[in-house]
């Protein structure tokens, strides 16, 4: 069997019931640097005054990775279900027509998003008495310089495994056409669902050191201002153990705060925009 032929476990929606299935997929060697997603260091101008912040982040990441690795699998599964249930039942999710969401990676121990992704791809958004099909954009890492694109998919079949077993969208659709890029759309995004290693109730987020989400969010926020759109709601998904005391997470001027958290215990609004979503 070729080394790029692997079993890909996917989740799909069958009637109203989620079922798991596996199938082999042959994947061509990657030519981009998608496998660098969790391990790159953001390429910024060197500032010696920030050394202590980067050191603190590095140390905290090591601690959080260890704690996530040791998390009880049964508890993790229960919290995955609870977090996704909160999202799926939330009006801010149901009313969103354009959504950016990450494809969860078991290897990275991210909060599961399979049910959320299935719901977006399967269900329309209600807008008055009109049913509008939701749009879903998912991340694809482009290079070592923290550049990440959000490309539209219409099915889980639009995803392939990169060399780090992380699912990403292909650059072109089945007809060979380039996928719709969220930075080039004519309509704004309503909701961005974000992963991370740790969060606090003031909006701070500890990423995986790549800087991809912060770079993308800053670029998209600039586009929103230019187009005079409403800023999207930034919601992070978190296990209970990932929520830490305020100011435990060191931040730099490059870090973008989140609007809200979803934990197994429910929706935690942070920004004024999120407070209006309750």
Strand order of the largest sheet: 7-6-3-10-13-15-16
Highest CATH level, the class:
Alpha Beta
Largest sheet: 7 strands, mixed
Count of helical regions? 6
Give the overall form. Answer: globular
The CATH superfamily bears the name NagB/RpiA/CoA transferase-like
Give the uncertain stretches in residue-range form.
1-44
What do we call the CATH topology?
Answer: Rossmann fold
Radius of gyration: 18 Å
Percentage of residues in strands: 25-35%
Order of helices and strands: EEHHHEHEEEEEEEEEHEEEEH
Class from secondary-structure proportions: alpha/beta
Task: Please give the share of residues in helix.
Answer: 10-25%
**Would you report the number of β strands?**
16
Q: What is the total domain count?
A: 1
> What would CATH call the architecture?
3-Layer(aba) Sandwich
End-to-end separation: 52 Å
Q: Please tell me the overall pLDDT.
A: 83
Can you walk me through this structure?
This protein has a single domain (5-275), classed as 3-Layer(aba) Sandwich (Rossmann fold). The chain has a seven-stranded mixed sheet. The protein has helices at residues 51-69, 73-89, 91-94, 114-122, 212-227, 272-275, and strands at residues 5-14, 17-26, 98-101, 124-127, 130-133, 135-141, 148-153, 159-161, 167-169, 191-194, 198-200, 205-206, 233-237, 243-244, 260-263, 266-269. The chain is built from six helices and 16 strands. β15 and β16 form a beta hairpin. With 278 residues, the chain is α/β, with parallel strands linked by helices. It is globular and about 50 Å long.
């Amino acid at each position: 069997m070729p080394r790029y032929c692997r079993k890909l476990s996917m989740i799909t929606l069958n009637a109203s019931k989620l079922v798991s299935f596996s199938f082999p997929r042959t994947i061509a060697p990657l030519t981009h640097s998608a496998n660098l997603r969790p391990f790159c260091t953001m390429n910024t101008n060197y500032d010696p005054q920030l050394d202590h912040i980067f050191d603190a982040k590095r140390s905290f990441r090591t601690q959080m990775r260890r704690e996530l690795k040791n998390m009880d699998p049964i508890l993790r599964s229960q919290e995955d279900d609870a977090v996704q249930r909160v999202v799926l039942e939330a009006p801010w999710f149901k009313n969103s027509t354009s959504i950016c969401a990450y494809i969860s990676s078991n290897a990275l121990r991210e909060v599961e998003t399979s049910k959320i992704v299935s719901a977006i791809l399967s269900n329309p958004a209600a807008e008055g008495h009109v049913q509008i099909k939701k749009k879903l954009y998912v991340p694809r890492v482009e290079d070592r310089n923290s550049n990440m694109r959000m490309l539209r998919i219409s099915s889980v079949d639009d995803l392939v495994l990169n060399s780090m077993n992380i699912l990403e969208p292909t650059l072109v659709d089945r007809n060979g056409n380039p996928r719709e890029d969220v930075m080039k759309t004519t309509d704004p995004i309503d909701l961005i669902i974000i992963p991370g290693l740790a969060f606090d109730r003031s909006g701070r987020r500890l990423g995986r050191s790549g800087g991809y989400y912060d770079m993308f969010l800053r670029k998209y926020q600039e586009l929103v201002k230019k187009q005079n759109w409403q800023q999207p709601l930034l919601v992070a998904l978190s296990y209970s153990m990932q929520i830490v005391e305020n100011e435990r997470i060191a931040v730099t001027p490059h870090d973008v705060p989140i609007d809200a958290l979803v934990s197994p215990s429910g929706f935690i609004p942070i920004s004024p925009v999120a407070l209006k979503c309750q």
